[in-house]
Write a structure and sequence with these properties.
Layout: E1 2-4, E2 11-14, E3 17-20, E4 28-31, E5 37-41, E6 53-56, H1 57-65
Length: about 70
C-alpha cells in the first residue's frame, strides 16, 4: 500500500514506513527505550518556516488506517 500524506508534504507511506517523494530529506528512524519507533522528518510546507519534527510511527500508521491521508 502506498499513500501520499497531505498532512506531511514531501513524504509518502509505503508498506508500513515513511519514504520521501524526492522533495523532502529522507526520514531517519530512531528506536526509543520503550520500543516506539520515531521518524524524524522535515516536511515541505508551502507557507511559513520549514521545521523538523519527530513523529511516532504508530501514530502515522493509525492515521493511514483511519483514512486520514
Amino acid at each position: 500500500m502506498q499513500e501520499d500524506l497531505s498532512w506531511l508534504p514531501g513524504y509518502t507511506y509505503v508498506d508500513g514506513t515513511l519514504k520521501t517523494t524526492g522533495e523532502a530529506i529522507p526520514p531517519t528512524f530512531h528506536l526509543r527505550k520503550d520500543g516506539e519507533i520515531m521518524a524524524y522528518v522535515k516536511p515541505i510546507f508551502c507557507e511559513g518556516p520549514t521545521v523538523g519534527m519527530f513523529l511516532q510511527m504508530s501514530g502515522v500508521k493509525a492515521a493511514v488506517e483511519r483514512g486520514e491521508i
